[in-house]
Amino acid sequence: MDRVGTRVDVAIRGVRLDAPVRRAGGAGPSDDGHLVVDGANAAIPLNPDSPYVVRDGRLYLGGTDMGLAVRPVRRPRFYDLATADGVPYEKIAKLHGSDVLATTVVQTCVRYGEADRCRFCVIEESLRSGATVAAKTPAQLAEVAEAAVRLDGIRQMVMTTGTTSGPDRGARVLARSVRAVLAAVPGLPIQVQCEPPADLAWIGELRAAGATAIGIHVESLDETVRRRWMPGKASVPLAAYEAAWDEAVRVFGWNRVSTYLLVGLGEDSDELVAGAARLIARGVYPFVVPFRPMAGTLARRDGVPGPAQQLVREVTERVAALLRAARMTGAEQGAGCAACGACGALSTAGG
Asked: Hey, what domains does the chain have and what are their CATH numbers?
């Protein structure tokens, strides 16, 4: 069976399945159920109209067994707990895949007004629905992380944030949060994610706080795409991202820095792959994932479809080949989205 093609196709078309662990809304790819596919984390859209279905632990297309073992991630025990002031742990941090704890420390973003908002993002929609709280305190995050490790075997953590108005772009609260979590759970690998801070010294502060890896997410290297899809973030020039990536590689190390590249925003595939090659040469892992027109996004409102399966497969396989040639894998990030790998198919393709 074509494992890569199937993994890409199901990431786009989804699956018919009742998954106990799911995520809707948020800052990144979501509207999904969390599964384990052939032993690897997978975040797959739950789509009642999908031609794919799971039966007896196997993935089927029509009556054909696609050669992939699939099991839903069980509901974690830490979801049953709440803080002393009554905030459910699930509103503070979420289980991603089978062993990753993820949180958006600040659930608001200065770029969320329609004129500036990233067209693929719904970071504030989950807040409006009551599924989370606006700001998680370091103490809350430490409490939840300790419980998640103790009760559910969590092995890594991801901390992202909406962009704040200060020049640190959210790095300050991330540093405080990392320190608090590591005081409660020493040695837990943590990835932090934020925009390039105006003062690059904040990257060193995040590493000094104990973060294992960092994600500085550009989503596209094409200026036309950036202005159309993320007008607020496009006000930060690519040169600022490049400077931040280089400083992050210097501080965190080669292949401990990553960035999302979204497939399906209109960027030429050859240019996207060439951009991924430049990132790899810098020591930055290009986490290639399909754009998802999630409910609540401006893209979904405007009827923008997701990418074609063949496009995602082509880009995924080409970037995976570049990663293999560089001896760079997502798992070696130590923590974070690339280390988890659930939202894309790079790990299936050998990257």
From this structure: 3-340 (3.20.20.70)
